[in-house]
Amino acid sequence: MAGRAMTLFLIEDDDAHAELIIRILRDEGFADLIFRVQDGEEALDFLFHQGKYCDASKYPTPDIILLDLRLPKVDGHEVLTIIKKDRRLRTIPVVVLSSSDSPRDLKLAAENYVNSYITKPLDLLKFQKMLKELGAYWLTWNRHHFQEQREHHV
User: What is the CATH number of the domain that holds 64?
Assistant: First the structure.
């Protein structure tokens, strides 16, 4: 896998949050390719290479997924459940980025094997700091571990 671009998939319906997340992750150099969709249905089309995402060479399977829970069309919990039940997708780390700190949401995400659950801070500076730390952890420190893991399971 040496030399392959690191691919991040952002599933986020809030344009302002998405723009901030993408800008920070790009500015910090954490991901080479970032794809973003705004709803759960489009996320599943992307992940399963359906519809306008049928060309897997243009829309590669991501190395990591950042998932909001409150999504139009298909809820984030359902997207997570589908990802973690699929043999090809289940080893992709999924990080929930949600405004919700509801115990129900935390429990449901854990039951569906989420790799990490992060509540979005309301303060912009805290949100930026959290994104930088998130990027460093998942896209730098853990990078080789989960890429090797995917290589053996795909």
Answer: 3.40.50.2300
